[in-house]
Specification:
With about 350 residues, this protein is an alpha/beta fold. It is built from twelve helices and ten strands. An eight-stranded parallel β-barrel has the order 3-4-5-6-7-8-9-10, surrounded by six helices. It has a two-stranded antiparallel sheet with strand order 1-2. Strand 6, helix 4 and strand 7 form a beta-alpha-beta unit. Helix 1 crosses helix 2, helix 4 crosses helix 5 and helix 8 packs antiparallel against helix 11.
């Protein structure tokens, strides 16, 4: 029988999500990869439970996480039922709808029919009555924004979600979504964009919008899908995500990006951190960023990431050094959604 560590809330800091009352851990665990049906279940279970033991209360999913799609929610549901059911009120569980889940015209994007059907399916897979945060996973240029946001509002009013958010929306559509949801009095509290030292698209206008609208920001892929770790310093190792050439394409491990990574690694060593730890600390330096959303394939990677919280301060000189090498690496594979505004 699983019993969580009694000291789990003593070390990990939490931050208020925008102007809402919800606080999130500065580091959250995403179940995008390595938690689905193709991954060893016991490894996924260990990562979830040990994360909770260390104060990570926020677990981020989506309908299509796996692989195969839906299987990460199913596995997380198994862990919830067997180990975490008694601690449901200590958890923040999020899921999303937007990407392809089933055949036909109603299986993706942002229609009311798809969004609410997807949420119902996600709740069944996880064995939940509600999720804490429900996201529109990407902007749909062919569906009125009022329709997609109205579906999020229905999710809350029907008791299937406590809060709502959006992911990968650009600044213009974020502001428009906020206006619609404000009129509906929907608890819209968070935006989830990709953000890292090699993918800085949110700096400037989007972060300004989030600050003005009182929205929290949870940054996904702060490690650039592993590129900002020691993994790729000497090329592409077999079994890595880049070697599989899936969501992280091998072409991104090019000499330009590796030159940046090597230079950033030297700065991290000067700070007494691993590259991954500095990359997370750097993302969290922005006051608008509530939490860094990490992925992992084993517990030791999560433990390393938690070590970033031991040194979150940067001198002006360090930031200037980082800026010289933190250059766009073509890593925003979600740019089609954010490009619509």
């Amino acid at each position: 029988m699983y019993l969580p560590d009694s000291s789990r809330y003593k070390e990990l800091p939490y931050a208020r999500c925008g102007s809402s009352g919800l606080r999130l851990p500065r580091i959250s665990l995403g179940l995008w990869q390595n938690f689905g049906g193709s991954a060893p279940f016991e490894g996924a279970r260990e990562m979830v439970l040990r994360s909770f033991d260390h104060g990570i209360t926020h677990f981020d999913l989506a309908n299509n996480y796996g692989p195969p799609p839906g299987s990460a929610e199913e596995n997380f549901g198994r862990i919830l039922a067997a180990d975490l059911a008694a601690y449901r009120d200590e958890l923040v569980i999020s899921t999303k709808a937007g990407y392809l889940m089933w055949d036909g015209p109603y299986g993706e994007w942002g229609s009311r029919k798809y969004v609410l059907a997807s949420l119902d399916q996600s709740l069944r897979r996880m064995g939940l009555e509600y999720v804490d945060i429900f996201y529109s996973h990407r902007y749909d240029p062919n569906t009125p924004l009022e329709e997609t946001m109205g579906a999020l509002d229905t999710a809350v009013r029907s008791g299937r979600a406590l809060y709502v958010g959006i992911s990968s929306y650009g600044p213009e559509k974020t502001r428009a979504a906020a206006a619609i949801l404000r009129d509906l009095k929907t608890p819209f509290i968070i935006h989830q964009p990709s953000y890292s030292m090699l993918n800085r698209w949110i700096e400037g206008e989007l972060l300004d919008v989030l600050k003005e609208e009182g929205l929290g920001c949870i940054a996904f892929s702060p490690l650039a899908q592993g590129l900002l770790t020691a993994k790729y310093l000497k090329g592409v190792p077999s079994g890595s995500r880049a070697a599989e050439n899936g969501s992280f394409q091998k072409r991104l491990v090019n000499e330009k990006n590796l030159e940046s990574v090597r230079a950033l690694d030297r700065i991290a060593q000067q700070r007494g951190q691993s590259l991954a730890q500095m990359a997370i600390a750097w993302v969290l330096r922005k006051p608008e960023v509530t939490s860094a959303l990490i992925g992992a394939s084993r517990w030791t990677q999560i433990a390393e990431c938690l070590g970033a919280l031991k040194n979150l301060k940067f001198s002006d000189d360090e930031l200037a050094q980082i800026d010289r090498h933190a250059l766009d690496g073509g890593l925003n594979i979600w740019s089609e959604s954010s490009a619509h505004g």
